[in-house]
């Protein structure tokens, strides 16, 4: 079994954005992996004041030990040009033997790094890309750092189904519940013919995408 901790990365302004979603996802993952989980201790640890406009990084080990790091986002690169996120599609299938690590956010990232490194060390690919979009049996799943959604010709917003094996991001959950976002299986063709493609997570927000085939 791979050594790992459960992970949440949260945006803090005056409070932690989507806190309840982060706590619920952490609880679900702890239950799945059999990690000890003390909800009152964790919630209390996240109620304090952090640096304004910062990233709060929380890890939880199997014994229920919590570690929280806080870093300002001021000097973090936005990794975009012309107000668009630059993403590349890796057409190779994800490794479904590591399914649990796609479905749960942890410190284990080898299943993502395999795809990232294919592009990172490719001389034909510029370095300042935002993310790599992954595929499973011909369908888009997610990015290695965020979820995606497309706008079709009927002005409907769609994001990939969880059945395609991907992380249920906290902002994804919020948009599905409160906004006009729906789930469906999304092919590569639909990505390239979409009126718009957006990349998003709760830490970075929502960015329109410039999509490229790797």
What structural category arises from helix and sheet content? alpha+beta
Give the number of domains.
Answer: 2
Query: Which residue ranges are poorly predicted, with pLDDT under 50 across at least 5 consecutive positions?
Result: none
Order of helices and strands: EHHEEEEHHEEEEHEHEE
Largest sheet: 9 strands, mixed
Any overview of this molecule?
With 214 residues, this protein is an alpha+beta fold. The protein folds into 2 domains: 6-72, D-amino Acid Aminotransferase, Chain A, domain 1, CATH 3.30.470.10; 80-213, D-amino Acid Aminotransferase, Chain A, domain 2. It contains 6 helices and 12 strands. It has helices at 19-33, 39-45, 99-103, 110-120, 170-178, 188-193, and strands at 6-12, 54-60, 66-72, 80-81, 84-93, 131-136, 139-143, 147-151, 157-160, 181-184, 196-201, 205-213. Strands 4, 5, 6, 7, 8, 9, 10, 11 and 12 form a 9-stranded mixed sheet that branches. The longest helix is centred in the N-terminal third of the chain and has 15 residues, at 19-33. It is globular and about 45 Å long.
